[in-house]
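Troubleshooting: if your tokenizer reports a length mismatch, compare against these two reference records.
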Amino acid sequence: MILRKLLSGILGLAGILGVNAFEYAPSNVSASIALKVPGNMAVHYPLILNKLSNGNFDYQLVSNHKLPVLLYQNITGEGQTKQISLWMVALEDVYFNFGEQVKSDARHDDCLFYMPGFWYRRNLRSPKEAPSFHTSDSWLVREDRLSTPMTTIFDEKNKKSISVTRIAEFEDEALTTHKEGEVILSGKTSIGYTGFENVSGTATLSFGYPYKEAPKSYIRKLTLAPSVEAYQFLKKGETLTLTWEIHETTADDFSDCVKQAWEYSYDLYKPTPVETPYTDEIIKEVLSNFFVESYVDDTPTKYYSGVELRTATCENLDVAEVGFVGRTLLNAFNALEYGEGKQRADLVKNANSIFDSYLQHGFSEAGFFNEVVHYKRNFVEKNHSIRRQSEGVYAVLYYLNYEKQHGRKHPEWEKRLKTMLDAFLKLQNPDGSFPRKFKDDFSLVDKSGGSTPSATLPLVMGYKYFKDKRYLEAAKRSVGYLEKELISKADYFSSTLDANCEDKEASLYASTAAYYLALATKGQERAHYAELAKKAAYFALSWYYTWDVPFAKGQMLGDIGLKTRGWGNVSVENNHIDVFIFDFADVLHWLSKEFNEPRFTAFSEVISSSMRQLLPHEGHLCGIAKKGFYPEVVQHTNWDYGKNGKGYYNDIFAPGWVVASLWELLSPGRAENFLK
């Protein structure tokens, strides 16, 4: 026993020493500066770190060549966290790009990598046309791609992590005339770069200023482009100070690494709510105009036109979509509930007509929703998705529960939903997963289980509404699959239907699914599902911005003052921010109380406040043609969905799901009230 305790103490001490083993020294740090004379290719100069024995700085960075800049560095802090502060003064007018590399003590092949909202593990769920290990094992990216300008290396073998995070005011951005090669900035930028590189087999943190991207830049969906290296102008006599923070810790696994990294970045940046004049009531009043102007009633199924609209006109189109980006049925429920509360007969009439028409004309022969219908083209999507089907059932269950509370019964709808939920039981695989896409005859189109958590919600609700334990058991099996294949492996993928990659919605849906089951169970089961919800929540949170990305003058989002903190990046493939939240805010508030974690509630308030900013109304249309048609594809970095780029929206958008998401954010407690 004594020997065991002694060995345990030695191992524990080794772990502590391992965490604090990093020392900033020339043996594991390298730096370089690239200088560019306009009209000429840049020249790259390796820098030598000369230790200074006295004075104001720890190191002077010098080259074998005479440079037109002086470079000094200080290293402060002790133990797990150290700050690197670089001081640069120009002896002549100069265009520069500075970079630094810090080697970890881990083999690159033993490591997983994390860049919040962009890179998870090795991005192997993403195709080779997007940033991933399929293309390279070393990546540098501009900081505004990331929800926190941080890179973390997790040594999976030795359970250690090391990260670098930029500390700055982030106030400036500059336009450029080119997006690849060597680019001279038109003004001052605050955006640098961060990333990881394989340096002779050692996992290495790389960071610098201004930005560069290598080996490829990522300019639009599934489009890698040549690398870019930006050059900042520094006038003779001017000085510049840059600061990064290196942080080390131990972590049990990649999930623990992400959890600790999010807590650390939240504490470092301390994001606060964004002040806006929009109360919940004001927002709902403005958004309700979407229910009025998008309503289409000259088709067999009435619907809200919320898909494939043009931002310039917001004119209604022929596309009716049940879930995903259309969310017609959830919008109909929201319009009904709001319309009755506000005595808006027009909203009530239209919402009821949508439910009535879908009951009559909205189903396939096998009893699934016709998910997407293009009326003018006479096209009905034959491939079903578990996500859209689930979102449709979810909306109708809220509708039926509301109607029942008001003394109105809909036995035909109940019969339809029972048929659909029974079909879900048939679709469910032995491992608890659901196929992503399938046909009316139950044959599979996409067997991937990434969308499984979307089915959990209506199954739990169906159990409560119909008092059928089969649905609860199916929900438990689905979360059993999530626990085994997604949550325990920290591998959240392919929940969204327009990408095959690591994405926010997979972790958000997984956390929400476990939350629903926690609400529907008791005792140890409830505690277990609560733990799963919390574990997945950190991954969902990691996609949300803790900082405000700077925009250049002339980029609309900057000109109207958008603060990006609280907005969520979408996926590796789709590198823009949006307001996807739905009832995840409720999950965060609940988890905050369950686990006494004030960060969850505090950051939920940041999300809620920030997502109000682009509310389009008279005098504040934010680049949208109609009041209440809230924007969707908000392009915050050097990436576009096809049009316009940073600081603007794509020209095509889907306000249907956006309105539904914001409405749920502003309707707290729905799940708890339904399931209590």
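Reference record two:
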Amino acid sequence: MPRRGERKVRERSTVPEAMPRQEPERIGIRRVAWTRRGVKCFHTVDPAKYRCSTLAAQLADAWVTYARAMARADGGADLAQAVRDFARFVDKHLPALGLDPADARLDGHIVDLAEVIHAWEEDLRQRHGLRSSAPYVKTGGLLTLIEQAVVSETDMPQALRLRAQAPPAYPPYRGEPLDEFSNAERLALRDAARDAVRALEARLTRGRELLKHGVDPRMGGWHDPANLVWAATRPYLLTVEVLKPQFPQNVLSWPEPVKALLPAGPDSTLLKRGFRYLVTELSALLFPAEMDLQAFRVLLLLGMSDTSPEELHDLTLPDIEFTDGGVRLVQRKGRAHRVRADLHLDPAEGAATDFAGDGAWDVPGLLRRLLAATELSRKVFPDAGPWLFLAVERRHRGVLDAEVAHFKNRDRRFGGWIAAQRTAGGKPLEITRPFEIRRLRKTAKVVRAVALGGTVSDLAGDDHHVEVYRMHYAHGTTAHILAGRAINRAQKWVFERTSTSGHPVLVTEEAEQHLEEPDVTADLGLDAGQAKAMRSGELDMGLVNCRNPYDSPHRKDTKVCHVAPAMCMLCRNAVVFTSQIPRLVLLSDHIERMRTTLTPPHWQAQWGRQAAALAEVFDECADLVPTARREIADLGLRLDLPLGMRTEFDR
């Protein structure tokens, strides 16, 4: 445990400082430099390449000034691209109108640039299609630069000034948001990544065992694999130019131990031949490559629901601090200009693990394994940056070199890694497209939502606003399923409260005669007091008997039922005697008469469920219904319903 004063100083979030204010060069190529993950890049605009060189120079100057003043982290790459694209269009468009592109300038009146911008937007729409945001981005960037140029170009036409203040003609394309991976896909990706990590660790163990027995191949010979592995730790000693004189040109004539290093198929046929592949395979025995690091990337994103791919990718060794309880990570979110520290705890001692092999699969365990895998890379290449994802590849002139993994090459992206994985049966993984690494973050969010439940504010967590969660995460399939289940549970509760599941109990004539006997009372779900009150007519509600008028399922308090007899046939407390069958027959006839006076939807809403409940009762005592109808005719019985019931239900 760190002592007081030994903990690393937490880096606080700060507003990016503006670059030094200086006037751009007015002649020659305009260039802006920027650094990303330790690599210095340049964006350039050369006005001399275009016939509208004056206009291109004015826009390029505005770009350089704006990028420096706003401290753009990427050097304003989108703005430079907009300038180049617009300049090319002006060179092509103006001659077709009989105008000279050299006359185009922001402070000129010969060429109406507002109309040219409109034509350029139409051209962008045609080139990029309807499902692209490029017209919006490029036009927005150009208009921003024109607004910037207003400060220096005082003679700018009023029409162009007004156009710069207006939005682009075409809005950005809002495509379908990314969905998360299903649970089966998540487990398949997790298992494949774990298998890849185990295979990497086994390969590195084999290579480092060879390294222990290796010597300088210039002294011990080039045909010993251990010596070749030793040469891999001296990058300039293991190149194609150095290896060619040491081996025959025909790969099949190489010594068998060296040929065994090359990738081969199940039938021992060499899949890749040549010195380049030999260097790559020797490097793979000692250093992880980008494809090897993808497995760690997948597992960490699945285990860190509050970390974006960019934050994980930008981690360096100073950002990682192991403690007795876990690991503390300092993460930087460039888009939000935020720096935050997260603590990931180790699992409790003695907790059961669900993996085979050494190490742990939680976040601290994965980071320890990743650092162990890249330890030799940092020793052999001390000038490489302190990146967590440090990959060794054949780079300039075929020499091994280490730098941060970019995961941008087509074969080294997340989709390429998925395509290279196989199940235990040797089949490719069945993963839905698109193969976007951002879907892993959404999957981790959904797993967290399933585990926690609760409100949207609970699910959003500490790293999102509720509205951000609703817009970018709550649309997923799993979230919809969870919402549907919640609605179904609520509906089921309501239906159970109002459904006929507690339909009236029919008491036969024989049972009615022995109603006060304990065995009969128990079978009917009554107590002695209820049975006695029913025999005396105290619980007669006008249509049927009621077990307890003060325990109505249609109200929450303990007051007397307020919907009898309108809802008695839908109540679990109702008890029907055979002497009450004529009343039910009269009610059934009344309901059928209402069918002719009410619209079908209205009748179904008011009387449909009661008609179904009556049909169930009549099915149980079908032999008593004809007798009940004769009794109605002989005695002239009529149905007495409360006035309120007729007013509410019959119209």
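Descriptive notes for reference record two:
- The CA atoms of residues 422 and 429 lie 6 Å apart.
- Confidence is low (pLDDT under 50) at residues 20-25, 349-358.
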